[in-house]
Write a structure and sequence with these properties.
With about 550 residues, the protein is α+β, with helices and mostly antiparallel strands. Helices cover about 30% and strands about 25% of the residues. The strands form ten sheets. The protein has a seven-stranded mixed β-sheet. A four-stranded mixed β-sheet has the order 2-1-5-6, with helices on one face. It has a three-stranded antiparallel β-sheet with strand order 15-21-23, with no helix packed on it. A hairpin with a 4-residue loop joins strand 28 and strand 29. It is globular, with a radius of gyration of 30 Å. InterPro entries: ABC_transp_unknown (IPR019196), DUF7088 (IPR055396), Motility-assoc_ABC-rel_GldG (IPR019863). This is Gliding motility-associated ABC transporter substrate-binding protein GldG. Keywords: Membrane, Transmembrane, Transmembrane helix. Pfam families: ABC_transp_aux, DUF7088.
């Protein structure tokens, strides 16, 4: 019998391929050949995972009999957690079937999980499947429930699951970081300028306390912020100013300027016009007027100007539920378009606004961005091309709801207007060349790399109150809608305070490589025959070739 030449190119290729396959199989090394590096953990993720010092477990309630689309989410979650465990063996996980383990829905809901209800068609009968697609991270007697499916309206189920898979790495690792971090960053809520009251700001406080320590900043003299408050301000990683209605003094502006120059992050929710829906509902009309908080020069230094004119968007707007009739003594309600409540819809590729529900704004104004600044200005939300501007003071009447497209008194068509921006870079002090710099010990003329968010609506962070109870932020009980205000502000805080660069993971895109369903239906029979007979033909051809070679050699 003829010996195989081990030095032949074919033999070398065969042995090399077998050796590489053996090494990969036993070493656990995986090669990510996808264009978007779908199966490669980011450096930021690896850094967070390596920082976990004690055992951390992840219980995933995604096991059992459910549709194939959720099987894909299960598979992606399992792969992700396996990669986490390779980076840090202290991280472990298990998949739990809540139905098989007979966990009650009340128990699961008490853990912060809301069920997903899916229809199931079997044998001509339609039943409902209850799923709890959540992961629970436990670390050092602390825990958090993480929804694995993003809550975004107006998209189909396939798109929702695809976006959930895109968001999976950020979703898991950001919560692992929040649970495993011993020292949490502090957020100060400024309380001195007639801002939103505690009940109206309860929803924001709840979301902030999930990952940070948050509390009020009250001036020691109960009048204005002074040098006596600077030590407390320096402890705050971020400062939130929500709907100030009392003017800032020049001394307060210098202190806020220096807070920013020393690296402090800020979120500004500013009303440049005073207009309240409660007053309008009672009296059917209201006279909005400009609000001057003495911050025009302050924001001008950052290349921003907040305009005192109401923005009406006659294309992207929220609905207002009103009594429009009565039947048998029962009021009849109708949801009607209200252009003074425009929607912030993500149209720019930014991690703060990606994959969230539309954000509801109430009587917002607009922001002009000015050039000549060295830092970056990112537009987060802006109105549609069908925008109207209403100059104030001017009447806003409830009857305008019947003719949203028509021009009223002192109104004019406008180009799209900016509602919210994020600033990023090194800022220069507005007081670097002014005499006020001498009033602040250790004055700094410029900041390190810093971030700031400015929103031209003071109500974006205000939750509704029903019968004395604060509703979750973004919930509208009258129209039964869940807006994205809570997720928007949560992402805003994470963006400002993200020292691990995890927010970049929210911009990950997974390209769908789907089969052509119409072609599958049209060519189904041809491909079935091909799959059936082609392997048989190949085997027959190889068998005939082998028989012919053998006969030629030995015959």
């Amino acid at each position: 019998m003829k010996k195989i030449n081990l030095k032949s190119p074919f033999a070398i290729l065969l042995i090399g391929t077998f050796a590489v396959a053996l090494i990969l199989a036993f070493s656990g090394i995986r090669l990510d050949l996808t264009k978007e590096k779908r199966y490669t953990l980011s450096d930021s993720t690896i850094k967070v995972l390596e920082s976990v010092k004690k055992p951390l477990t992840v219980d995933v309630y995604l096991e059992g009999d459910f549709p194939a689309s959720f099987k894909q989410l299960q598979s992606e979650t399992k792969f992700m957690l396996e990669e986490f465990r390779k980076i840090n063996p202290k991280i472990d996980f298990k998949f739990i079937d809540p139905i098989k383990t007979k966990m009650s829905q009340d128990t699961l809901m008490a853990m912060g999980m809301q069920p997903s209800v899916l229809p199931d068609n079997k044998d001509g009968k339609t039943t409902q499947i209850y799923l709890f697609p959540y992961a629970v991270v436990k670390y050092n007697q602390r825990g958090v429930s993480i929804p694995l499916v993003i809550q975004q309206s107006n998209i189909n189920a396939e798109e929702q699951l695809r976006k959930s898979i895109e968001n999976l790495e950020y979703n898991l690792v950001s919560n692992i970081k929040a649970v495993a971090t011993n020292k949490r960053k502090k957020i100060g809520i400024l309380v001195n300028q007639d801002e939103l009251n505690p009940r109206e700001f309860e929803g924001f406080m709840n979301l902030a306390l999930e990952s940070y320590d948050a509390g009020p900043i009250v001036p020691k003299n109960n009048v204005e912020i002074t040098q006596a408050d600077v030590p407390l301000l320096k402890q705050m990683s971020a400062l939130v100013i929500a709907k100030p209605r009392k003017a800032f003094t020049d001394g307060e502006k210098v202190i806020l300027d220096q807070y920013i120059m020393n690296g402090g992050k800020t979120i500004w929710m500013i009303d440049a016009v005073n207009a309240e829906m409660d007053t309008l509902t009672r009296s059917k009309k209201v006279m909005p007027f400009p609000v001057d908080i003495n911050m025009t020069d302050f924001f001008f230094n950052y290349g921003l100007r907040i305009n005192p004119a109401l923005v009406k968007d006659v294309k992207k707007y929220a609905l207002l539920k009103l009594v429009t009739g009565e039947v048998g003594g029962n009021a009849q309600y109708t949801s009607l378009p209200w252009p003074y409540f425009p929607l912030g819809i993500a149209e720019h590729d930014h991690p703060i606004t990606k994959n969230i529900n539309p954000v509801k704004l109430e009587f917002p104004t607009s922001i002009d961005t000015l050039g000549g600044r060295k830092f970056k200005t990112h537009v987060l939300f802006e109105s549609s091309e069908r925008t109207l501007l209403k100059q104030v003071p001017n009447y806003v009447e409830l009857k305008e709801i019947s003719s949203v497209d028509s021009l009223g008194q002192m109104e004019k068509p406008s180009t799209p207007k900016i509602f919210a921006v994020a600033l990023e870079g090194k800022f220069n002090s507005a007081y670097a060349s002014r005499i006020e710099r001498k009033s602040y010990p250790g004055f700094k003329a410029s900041s390190p790399e810093n971030k700031m968010i400015v929103i031209a609506d003071g109500d974006v962070g205000r939750n509704k109150i029903i019968k004395g109870q604060a509703l979750p932020l973004g919930v509208d009980m009258l129209t039964d809608e869940q807006f994205g205000n809570e997720q928007f502000l949560r992402n805003a805080l994470d963006y400002l305070l993200d020292d691990s660069n995890l927010m970049g993971l929210r911009n990950r895109n997974i390209e769908e490589r789907l089969l052509d369903r119409h072609r599958i239906a049209d060519e189904r029979t041809n491909w079935q025959y091909l799959n059936l007979f082609l392997p048989l033909a190949i085997i027959g051809l190889l068998g005939g070739l082998f028989f012919w070679l053998r006969k030629k050699k030995f015959g």
